[in-house]
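Case study 2.
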Amino acid sequence: MSRITHADHVISAVESGTVGTRLTASWRRSLKKHGLDPFKSHSVRRFSDVEIRARRERLGSFMELASPKLDQLFQMVGNTGCSVLMTDRDGVVLDQRSKDADTDTFQSWGLCSGAVWSEEQEGTNGIGTCLAEERQVTIHRDEHFLPRNTLMSCMDAPIFGPDGKLIAALDVSSCRADQTEAYARLIQGVVAQTAKQIEIDTFRAAFPKARIITAPEDRPEGAVLLAVDQDDLVIGATRAARRAYGLGPTVSFDPMPASDILGRDSTESALERAERAALKRAIARAGGNMSAAARELGIGRATLYRRMKRLGIGEYGEN
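Prediction:
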């Protein structure tokens, strides 16, 4: 599709309301809300190194925690002509990895440190639309709003902080002309899993002394984790857990008994099963010595007995 043809298609589709369901809201925002014109070309906005450092510092230890996972992701996709990028919630690229042979291509496209890929700036694109809609997205070639971005395929997933607030986007962009949409969807799954792991690591680091309860079921919207202190009070919850238990997506909440949360519905009973399994494993390792089991769990013996009673666990770990 030529540049003019693509721009004509964008305008016509938005005005007639015939854009595909996944793109309707984003293309309309790009044209109507952000006032972008697909017929006009502009350079990608870039921040200075000073601004990049300031933005990284505002994220604290998050970038350091995420870095090993970015390395692992790049090892999986780097040889296929893909670049791995991490942005903050404003769509500013703070970290990037690409093969030397592909660097010039990504630089010319503006996929580099300091570049701004918010939807307000670039219209529909993987990073910007992921952040705007707070969900996983794949924007393949001419699904982009601006014609100059239609050579790339972008696979993105949002990352939420320990308080449930959006803090970053993880992006894999491809410069391969022969990359199919099906392959892009495959990469999307790897991106989503990596973003989920970064979120888990960040959450665990935020509550180093807490016991982390994990739901055994896999959820596409993120990890369902609760941080529970030595008094059996929930003091933290991931975005997915907040949604599962009606705790409010981003608001702070006062510590509450874990039993008050874990006894509400079938999803929460799954977490009860996870807690029961953790207690039974500790009791088994300790050979039935409750004091040793409590020490392994990092709780008091009285707290252990209280939890065993609530979960219906006998003195020797039997149900």
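The chain has two domains: 39-204, 209-311.
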